[in-house]
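STRUCTURE:
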């Protein structure tokens, strides 16, 4: 099991509290709103040092900022699929 940042919660709380993307970018010391927006959309990952700042600014308990993920990496899934196909071909 792995954990991911709960991007949906971050965006929902930010919008509900009326905080702009610009404000959040400033909180994290990012040079542009776009840099923050891409993190919130999941295009880029939040850095480990940014997560506590986001949680504090939005008032989200740190333990709620993460969600468990049962998804396996794409690479791992492809590898298992190829291995299974090879075993079938040998039979």
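SEQUENCE:
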């Amino acid at each position: 099991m792995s954990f991911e940042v709960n991007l949906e919660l971050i965006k929902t709380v930010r919008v509900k509290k009326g905080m702009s993307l610009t404000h959040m970018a400033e909180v994290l010391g990012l040079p542009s709103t776009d840099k923050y927006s891409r993190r919130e959309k999941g295009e880029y990952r939040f850095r480990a040092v940014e997560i506590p700042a986001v949680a504090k600014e939005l008032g989200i308990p740190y333990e709620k900022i993460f969600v468990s993920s049962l998804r396996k990496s794409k690479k791992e899934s492809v590898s298992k699929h190829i291995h299974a196909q090879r075993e079938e071909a040998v039979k």
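REMARK: The mean pLDDT is 84.
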